[in-house]
Design goal:
The structure holds 2 protein chains of 2 kinds. By secondary structure, chain A is mainly beta. In chain A, about 0% of the residues lie in helices and about 55% in strands. In chain A, strand 9 and strand 10 form a beta hairpin. Chain B is an all-beta fold. Chain B is about 0% helix and about 60% strand. Chain B is built from no helices and 10 strands. In chain B, strands 2, 4, 5, 6, 8, 9 and 10 form a 7-stranded mixed β-sheet that branches. In chain B, strand 5 and strand 6 form a beta hairpin. The chains are: A mainly beta, B mainly beta. Chains A and B meet through strand 4, strand 5, strand 9 and strand 10 of A and strand 4, strand 5, strand 8 and strand 9 of B.
Chain lengths: ~120, ~110
């Protein structure tokens, strides 16, 4: 069965960086793209960007493009999201999700990773 | 950027009632790229509907999606206790995804 398992919760200080991992299984990693979505406390879902696991091509949300980098490791079927220059409003649950080919919906999701930014 | 406006913000209904949720886009959206998700506290989002009207794997048939162009609807025909949650619509266009702000379906 398809599974996306994310790394554990992180606490970071303002200005630091965080790197969240998303290990996939149950499907051929390189045949799907991965998207990252976050949800701040009490807020809705915010799309952050996506990466093709086939060729590494990325698209980032405009408001984050200067601070975010998404990568993949095909040898371990793992996707990564790094966010730099963290601010308090980056405190959120971060999700990875598989992109349903042809429909650009997010059909399988990781369990979420809470990132807390606090001094 | 396409903005998705969901209404109402909160829907107060009783189990067994019908829920109708609206998602309006600021410009025309391809039906192929319109989806609905359910989100419960402490859980990951769950894909309900993709391609505006296709149910995702394992989704009960009381959930249905419809619409085209700028107006889309998610209908829950008879609310079950487990359906009380927040629902988001999402669209894809020009290599970018956007979500609506959500509709909370709460127990009346």
């Amino acid at each position: 069965q398809v599974q996306l398992v994310q790394s554990g919760a992180e606490v970071k200080k303002p200005g630091a960086s965080v790197k969240v991992s998303c290990k996939t299984s149950g499907y051929t990693f390189t045949t799907y793209s991965i998207s990252w979505v976050r949800q701040a406390p009490g807020q809705g879902l915010e799309w952050m960007g996506r990466i093709s696991a086939y060729n590494g091509n990325t698209n980032y949300a405009q408001k984050l493009q200067d601070r975010v980098t998404m990568t993949t490791d095909t040898s371990t079927s793992t996707a990564y999201m790094e966010l730099r220059s963290l601010r308090s409003d980056d405190t959120a649950v971060y999700y990875c999700a598989r992109i349903l080919t042809g429909y650009y919906s997010l059909d399988y999701w990781g369990q979420g990773t809470l990132v807390t930014v606090s001094s | 950027e396409i903005v998705l406006t969901q209404s109402p913000g909160t829907l107060s209904l009783s189990p067994g009632e019908r829920a109708t949720l609206s998602c309006r886009a600021s410009q025309s959206v391809s039906s192929t790229f319109l989806a609905w998700y359910q989100l419960k506290p402490g859980q990951a989002p769950r894909l309900l509907i993709y391609g505006a009207s296709s149910r995702a794997t394992g989704i009960p048939d009381r959930f249905s999606g419809s619409g085209s162009g700028t107006d889309f609807t998610l209908t829950i025909s008879r609310l079950e206790p487990e359906d009380f949650a927040v629902y988001y619509c999402q669209q894809f266009g020009s290599s970018f995804w956007t979500f609506g702000l959500g509709t909370k379906v709460e127990i009346k």
